[in-house]
Design a protein that fits this description.
Elements lengths: L1 H16 L3 E6 L5 E4 L1 H7 L3 H4 L10 H5 L2 H7 L2 E9 L5 E13 L2 E10 L1 H93 L2 H34 L7 E3 L1 H10 L9 E6 L5 E3 L1 H19 L4 E9 L2 E8 L6 H4 L17 H11 L3 E6 L4 E8 L3 H17 L1
Parallel strand pairs: 7-9
Antiparallel strand pairs: 1-2, 1-5, 3-4, 4-5, 6-8, 9-10, 10-12, 11-12
Helix pairs in contact: 6-7, 8-9, 9-11
């Protein structure tokens, strides 16, 4: 009996002076039997209004709708996140510890409520901050992607500017080359005039003083020299007019490529005395191309091939057609081109020879592009192949091209 009295006294002390809200209710009638002052502070109601009132009035409507009392009465122990209802309607979350007391004929339920509202608010703030942080991280990711896109766009613009700078530099080089070429063309007039006069005197003397055998032997050389001189005069005149107008003259016409190739090869007969020549000429249509520009390109490629062979090896030319293109391959089995030259092969001042100027291939490439063709290079191991692409003669297309050219001259 003394032990029970001591327990009641201790319980009474905790009930009255403890830090948590404590209340008891009748297990069967669900009426509040007792409550301490902390419960009064927690729900904002006086102890007199709580005691003898239905226990369901302490709990929020959601808890009452969920049959809170049945759950609490049925299971003693700890119940988390129980919502109590304050007098002002503001919900209070508590951690509710429930104990069953069987004392005589009045079974009771003792409840200890610890306020967890602040903790829930902190958790809610933490979740909100975490959500905001996640959103900021996602926004940062989008910003980083935008910066990457901007950087890629900037790199593209930088490459475009670098390409434009290179084009401007090439244009300046070409302008300098044009000025230089015009000066050379002007300086060549007197030597060509002297050469023309000398050829006329040689022709007259051959006709009057040479024997028939000598005339027959030298006539073809004289004819070849006269033809070369005539072509030189045409080229010099074209350079002079190009310098004045700023445009290369281009008068495309139907050209027999095989005849042009044979003519170009005759100019190199003496240099090919110790070189093997393989010439494959297939039956092809005529090309629509400026003959003077074509002769310059063919002669330049043959000259480069013979210089690479240096009097030994094989020069092979192959003329054939593919689709609407006429193709001329100029091949040699020489040492080939250095790697440092291949990357910028068709740019001015790039040459594979120590004594080369680097202007022949760049001029040939530009001429080929003007007649809507192309020049490509391929390594043969050993040797090199330069391929000239020329548009085949098409009467309808040529008529359209001629009409366009007439329109351009009219506009100028």
């Amino acid at each position: 009996m003394e032990s029970v009295a001591v327990e009641d006294k201790v319980f009474g002390i905790f009930f009255e002076y403890g830090a948590e809200a404590v209340f008891t209710m009748h297990r069967e009638s669900r009426l509040i039997v007792s409550a301490n002052r902390h419960l009064e502070e927690l729900v904002g109601r006086s102890i007199h209004s709580i005691v003898n009132s239905p226990a369901g009035e302490l709990f929020d409507c959601d808890e009452r709708a969920g049959n809170w009392d049945d759950r609490i009465v049925a299971r003693a122990g700890l119940h988390e996140d129980v919502r109590l209802r304050r007098l002002d309607g503001f919900p209070v979350f508590v951690s509710l510890t429930v104990a069953h007391i069987d004392e005589g004929n009045e079974p009771l339920v003792a409840c200890i409520a610890r306020d967890t509202t602040e903790r829930r608010n902190l958790e809610r703030d933490l979740i909100a901050k975490h959500t905001a942080l996640y959103a900021a991280h996602a926004e940062l990711g989008r910003t980083v992607e935008q910066l990457k896109d901007a950087q890629s766009s900037l790199e593209v613009r930088n490459r475009e500017l670098a390409a434009l700078g290179s084009q401007f530099a090439q244009a300046a080089q070409r302008a300098a080359i044009g000025e230089f070429s015009a000066g050379i063309a002007h300086s060549m007039n007197n030597p060509m005039a002297a050469l023309s006069s000398a050829l006329r005197q040689i022709s007259r003397r051959l006709n009057h003083k040479a024997t028939p055998e000598l005339q027959e032997e030298l006539s073809r050389f004289l004819q070849r020299s006269s033809g070369a001189l005539g072509r030189m005069e045409i080229i010099v005149d074209a350079v002079r007019r190009a310098h004045k107008s700023g445009n290369l003259p281009s008068s495309a016409q139907a050209v027999n490529i095989a005849d042009e190739l044979r003519t170009a090869l005759t100019l190199f007969e003496q240099r090919m005395e110790s070189t093997s020549l393989v010439c494959v000429l297939e039956d092809i249509p005529e090309a629509w191309i400026p003959p003077d520009a074509l002769h310059h390109v063919i002669s330049n490629l043959i000259d480069n091939a013979l210089r690479a062979l240096d009097g030994q090896g094989t020069l092979r030319v192959h003329l054939h057609a593919e689709d609407s293109w006429i193709i001329l391959d100029v091949e040699d089995n020489g040492p080939g081109l250095p790697q440092r030259v291949r990357e910028n092969l068709f740019e001015p001042f790039v040459s594979g020879r120590e004594d080369g100027t680097g202007l022949g291939l760049s001029m040939s490439f530009r001429l080929a592009r003007q007649w809507r063709g192309d020049i490509t290079h391929h390594d043969l191991h050993p040797g090199s192949r330069f391929r000239i692409l020329m548009p085949a003669h098409d009467e309808h297309a040529c008529a359209c091209a001629g009409s366009d050219a007439t329109t351009e001259r009219a506009v100028e």
